[in-house]
């Protein structure tokens, strides 16, 4: 069935590559999915403004349709005593890789929000998406004046209405089955099961804004279901993790197909913010005691997780994965886009 280009993305297919911060999303991946007809998001999270600018320039040279995702500023407070308690608990994990967490103190940052915003105002991209919370109305207005459409990730109907109130052009609706960090605006809120199609219908009915639906996309039938629920486009992340163009570590890629990891769990253990990961030793041991405290816990465990990836130890690594992870395949990203487009 022929379709017009979905708004606000404007790509030939109503499909988008979700921004996967931490290295999985690369300019090469963005270019590949755009060449296949989907829209690509670069992940601005955890990068310096200079590194993000370089990636923008690289993708722009390919002529790809793309946008940039930023983390909204905001922290979940954690006191020194709680962080030190968790550091002591994690020390046996750290010792596997020759690390010492005994001097841990809370590190708070806003992921250089203001500098990245300045970058995108000076060198606009077609779409800017924001996750983890709301930008200020004045920031939304400034991005729109610069020529960017502004999207906000939401996980409830209430968050969707709040995003509409600050002037968002469209919404990224993230169901609970999505992999990686939840975009919830309240990281202390328990993440309850919320099917993406159901949430999409509620958000569309409440706000009337265009919706890009994300979470639980394991094949073309899921895409068709979400479009039928009212989404203008569907975002996919986990299915792209094992592709040739993905920057995910070999340890992460292999774990997605490893039968010792049969399911996923939502946990704060890795970063202090709820996120869906393959259920491994780290998640099993520390999910019950891992404190809320983002980004302080992220900074505490970062070197440990990097060492686990380098050592090829999938049990010490944040193996972000949505519930459809078993459908992730190796090969070119184009093949994933082509398969998802089968029912369009």
From TrEMBL:
Presence of the UniProt keyword Flavoprotein in the record = yes
What reaction gets catalysed by this protein?
3 propionate 3-nitronate + 3 O2 + H2O = 3 3-oxopropanoate + 2 nitrate + nitrite + H2O2 + 3 H(+)
List, in alphabetical order, the GO biological process terms annotated in this UniProt record: 'de novo' pyrimidine nucleobase biosynthetic process; response to toxic substance
Q: Which UniProt keywords apply?
A: Detoxification, Flavoprotein, FMN, Monooxygenase, Oxidoreductase
Q: Does the keyword Plastid apply?
A: no
Give the GO molecular function terms.
nitronate monooxygenase activity; oxidoreductase activity, acting on the CH-CH group of donors
The entry's family comment says:
Belongs to the nitronate monooxygenase family. NMO class I subfamily.
| Protein name per Swiss-Prot or TrEMBL | Propionate 3-nitronate monooxygenase
Q: What is the lineage of its organism?
A: Bacteria, Bacillati, Actinomycetota, Actinomycetes, Geodermatophilales
